[in-house]
Amino acid sequence: MEPMLSVRNLVKRFGGLTAVNHVSLDVYPGEAVGLVGDNAAGKSTLIKCISGVYQADEGEIFFRGERAHFARPIDARRAGIETIYQDLALAGNLGISANIFMGREVKRKYLGGMVHTLDETFMNEASRKVLDTLNIHFANFGEKIEKLSGGQRQAVAIARAVYWQAKLMIMDEPTNNLGVVEQHKVLDLIGKLREEQVPVILISHTLPDVFAVTNRIVVMHRGRRVAEKRTSETNSHEIVQYMVGALDDTR
Ligand SMILES: Nc1ncnc2c1ncn2[C@@H]1O[C@H](COP(=O)(O)OP(=O)(O)O)[C@@H](O)[C@H]1O
Ligand SMILES: [Mg+2]
After folding, report:
1. Rg value, the chain, Cα
2. Looking at ligand 1, which residue's alpha carbon is closest to its atom 24?
3. pLDDT tens for residues 31-51?
């Protein structure tokens, strides 16, 4: 099987600091890969290179078999890479459906195409349908995003990725600052994405979460990839040893 994403020898420097140091990573359809490491290990920088926020200094990224050059995040999104951060790229002053369709609104034409209006009925119904299939239910569907809880916002972001048939979902610390129930909901949703064959890269400090939903774990330490393990063949004690630099498979 061909990897959905293939990162080859990626390097990203900030002045004299090498934040990502010759990192390679393959992600296959239907799998969830945990990306872990101590603070400043380079995790966020690596995924920002993948999602078009940064341009790598060296190395190559292949997405769906083709060399990818994402100059901006919107280019990566159009290609099918959805990235969600703790401080999500959702518009707080808009509703759920407006966020799912943000930048890709459906319009209706009147008077032979002279007049365009947003097709809110269509977008609302489509949003409800995708939320239903994910088993996400809002008592407050018409509410603005800023009124929703952190977990509900994550759910909207995930619904957006499913609706637009994302080919890769990257989540950077998605369960940070969420309550326990909401954390579980987000983890359930990661499972649903996998069922839909959408691969997931999950960055998290919460190792039990990583062990619960991933099938592979990649550990970074000071910019380098120091370990790659099948989740079923490792444990959190061993992963922590890699995270703090006590173990290093490249040495
Ligand atoms: N925009 C930036 N400019 C300069 N240094 C940065 C920038 N972003 C990240 N860094 C540095 O790169 C290193 C890796 O950071 P980051 O990728 O955020 O790590 P992580 O997500 O694993 O905590 C850190 O030393 C951080 O200070
Ligand atoms: Mg980070």
Report:
1. 19
2. 40
3. 999 999 999 999 999 999 999
User: How far is residue 93's CA from residue 87's CA, in Å, rounded to a whole number?
Assistant: 14
Taking each continuous run of H as one helix and of E as one strand, the counts in the chain are: 8, 12
**How far is the C-alpha of 56 from the C-alpha of 84, rounded, in Å?**
20
**Which whole-number Å values give the CA distances from 20 to 62, 74, 75, 208, in the listed order?**
17, 22, 22, 25
Taking a C-beta distance cutoff of 8 angstroms, is the pair 32, 190 a contact? yes
Taking the CB of residue 158, how many other CB atoms lie within 10 A of it?
29
Cα 6 to ligand 1 centre (Å)? 22
Residue type, 41: A
67-77 average pLDDT score: 91
Q: Determine the Cα–Cα distance for residues 100 and 152; give it in Å rounded to an integer.
A: 13
Residues touching ligand 1 (Cβ under 6 Å) are: 14, 17, 19, 37, 39-45
Ordered structural domains, the chain, with CATH: 5-243 (3.40.50.300)
Separation between Cα atoms, residue 68 and residue 53, nearest integer Å: 13
Q: What is the pTM of this model?
A: 0.88
Mean pLDDT is lowest, of 42-46, 62-66, 67-71, 181-185, for 181-185
- CA–centroid distance, 206 to ligand 1, in Å, is 20
Cα–Cα distance measured from residue 164 to residue 160, given in angstroms and rounded to the nearest whole number: 6
Ligand 1 mutation pick, 14, 20, 25, max ligand atoms within 8 A of CB: 14
Q: Is 114 helix (H, G, I), strand (E, B) or coil?
A: coil
